[in-house]
Amino acid sequence: MALSEDQLNHYRSILTEKRERLIESAKTTLDTEMVVSQDDRFDEVEDRLTDWQSTGLLARSGVETFYNPVLPGDLEASVATSLWQAWISEFLRLSIDDELFPGVNYPTGDTGRTRLLTLMLEGRGPDNPEGMASWVKATGESAYFDILDTPEIETSHEVMLLALASGLDALAEPSTEPGYGGYGTTDMSEYLWGMRHMVRFESLLVEAIGNDPSLAFLLDQFNITPEVLPLAANLASDDPRAELPWFPRHGDMLNVDAGNPGFGLDDHTYGSGPVFRMVIALGPDGAEGVNILPGGQSGLNDSEHFADQAAAWLGNETWPMHTTVDAVLGDQRSVQRFSPVR
């Protein structure tokens, strides 16, 4: 994205002002040790994230469903994922979003901002290792780590701690509605990622018509929800899973098995992902393959095939692809015969 000369001058002036503030106020920054000592939650977060790192940083749901068994270690990984997501969302908000950079959202807001934040973190240290225009000698890092709305000059470490504190506060807030908002407790073991990270199977009519609340009575009946595919058999009414509007799922930002909820604190659902998983192997006897759709073969909500593939898609399972007449006939469910109109 090309910037006009006026825009370039505007951001040059901001950078110049930040440089001057940093040079003049390098010794009046926040006391990082004081921030840490005032929040005894940080020790538990450090332990949980360190353990998570040692086990591969898997973003697990931690919620038992018909398509997702909870395996040993999943609960711990699930909690760590929630902690990480809350922290990185707040860190991006405090370090980058307050700058209102144009063009940082390329090719998407998530990838652009994480790319910029990575550069700023790797560019810390003496002699400006990444050659950043925003690097300041007084702090040895980018001037953009400073929070615009505060009189103090924050460093990257201080912003990280402030982000963690505000992220933990958000996690402890009460839920705004089932599946959204905080967990209503300071007990971190309750922060199961899958209770907030859910995939939405919304009807394509929403995109065609628009998400008009007055048309919800029409659109909602074509959504695939836990009312169509129950999360588990015989859920008690007081089971927290019984109120979830969508499907708990593993994954987080920028995964191969896409489950991008965005960098926010209240809504971790996502409605886009692999729309057609297909794998084909070519061999001496022909092609073999599998595929699956995040929905069903039929768009009619009274059909048995309306949501049958969604059930497999949720668990990363697939159906075989039939590429020969014999294979198709061997797995047929019904036959329709057509004759020419006379």
Report on the architecture of this protein.
The protein has about 350 residues and is an alpha+beta fold. It is about 35% helix and about 10% strand. The strands form 4 sheets. The chain has a 3-stranded antiparallel sheet with strand order 7-8-9.
Question: Which keywords apply here?
Answer:
alpha+beta; 3 domains; two-stranded antiparallel sheet; 10 helices; 9 strands
Question: Could you give a quick summary of the protein structure above?
Answer:
The protein has 342 residues and is an alpha+beta fold.
Count of helices? 10
Element-by-element helix/strand order? HHHHHEEHEEEHHEEEHEH
Report strand %.
5-15%
The low-confidence runs, each spanning 5 or more residues with pLDDT under 50, are 22-30
Derived structural class? alpha+beta
Q: How would a textbook summarize the main sheet? A: 3 strands, antiparallel
DSSP strand count: 9
Mean pLDDT comes to 85
Integer tally of domains: 3
Distance between the termini: 60 Å
Rg, rounded, reads 25 Å
Strand order of the largest sheet: 7-8-9
Helix content: 25-40%
* Global outline: globular
